[in-house]
Amino acid sequence: MKQFYTLITAFLLAHTICMAQPYGNEWIAFTSGQPLSTQQYFRIGIWQEGVYRVSYADMQNNGVPVTSWFSPDRFQIYANGKEQFIHVADVNADNIFGPGDYVEFYGKGTDGAYDRALYVNNEDQPNPYFSIYNDTASYFLTYSPFSTNNRRMPLLTDNNFGAYSPETYFISEQVKVYGGEYNIGWRDYNDIADNSFSEGEGFFIQ
After folding, report:
1. What pTM does this model have?
2. What's the CA gap between 44 and 62, in Å, rounded?
3. Which end of the chain, N or C, is less surrounded by CB atoms within 10 Å?
4. pLDDT of 55-102, one tens digit each?
5. Which range of residues forms the domain containing residue 49?
6. In this structure, is residue 123 part of a structural domain?
């Protein structure tokens, strides 16, 4: 009987731990007990690093309800579950998001950060800069009906460059990412590949 109680306790503990794990969608605004979000999210596919602009016309042409998304301070963009810093341009300073206004943000494509967990040993991932599955990252544009204290890029207007002393040197890091071919990883003596992700498997040959 003692062993039975021990088994039940272990099962309940394991169940509690499993139930406590996050789903990864905690950044999405849900009303308690409701299956649907209280906000709309529009996906923007980004595959190359750079600064991107989404104009009022872009939103209007792609089904964003711009007539109800009128307050510039309520715009948000999320990527990898985190709110991103954005710049919302209100060109005529009327505090209404309208024609000619736009949202700017910094974005980049995917890397191998999430693929790392697929390997039997995480350290066996050969290329952390190149995703096995997809080169396009998902950025989600949304409009919060509740929050106005959202992340914004600080605007710098200091152009008095002569007041600064030039640096004698700078350090730059450059990374060459190879993804021309896929290495299947470890094989056994019958030349059969392991069905799990093993050492050396991934994209890294030019």
Report:
1. 0.79
2. 11
3. N
4. 999 999 999 999 999 999 999 999 999 999 999 999 999 999 999 999
5. 37-170
6. yes
